[in-house]
Amino acid sequence: MMAINLPVQRAQVENLYVEAMLLADEAHAAFAAQRNLGSVRGNAAAQIALACESLKTTTRLMHVIAWLLHRRAMFAGDPGAGPNDSAARIGEPVAADWELCAGFDAPIRRIIAASERLFERIAVLEAGWKAPPVAPVQALLARLEARL
């Protein structure tokens, strides 16, 4: 059963890694542009809110990228990357303050929301991959045992 799931998991990790890196680049560019040219210029409270949400978004994305890189290392058989390492767990999400985000431009809000969705997707994957795979024979035996 594990051999069947492994290529699917590898493909998911690779696709999510590309998505996370693209989103990180987009976030970096958008937050930098907003700081330099955007509507928060001259408004100290808005600048602080933007800086805080920029840090939260960056932290969220770095957690995702670290988790994905750790999974890649596990798939590659890296002896330093194990399933019980702290990097093997995505951890708790860093939630955005949507009351503050309401004042940001739409592209910034979209990036923040996309980073939260990506983090949630990783957490769901991690939860699903924690369960040990059950071999078909074991599943059949469990069903037979339940009938007796």
How would you characterize this protein structure?
The chain is mostly helical and 148 residues long. The chain has a single domain (2-147), classed as Helicase, Ruva Protein, domain 3. 74% of the residues lie in helices and 0% in strands. It has helices at 2-37, 44-75, 98-101, 106-130, 136-147. Helix 1 runs antiparallel to helix 4. It starts with a helix and ends with a helix.
Q: Can you summarize this structure?
A:
The chain is an all-alpha fold and 148 residues long.
Question: Separation of termini?
Answer: 26 Å
CATH architecture: Orthogonal Bundle
Mean pLDDT: 86
* CATH third-level topology: Helicase, Ruva Protein, domain 3
CATH class: Mainly Alpha
Strand content: under 5%
Low-pLDDT sequence parts: none
Structural class: mainly alpha
Number of helices: 5
Fourth-tier CATH superfamily name? Protein of unknown function DUF1465
Q: Would you report the number of β strands?
A: 0
Rg over CA atoms: 20 Å
Shape assignment = elongated
Whole-number total of structural domains: 1
The main pleated sheet reads as: none
Helix content: over 70%
Assembly state of the chains shown: single chain
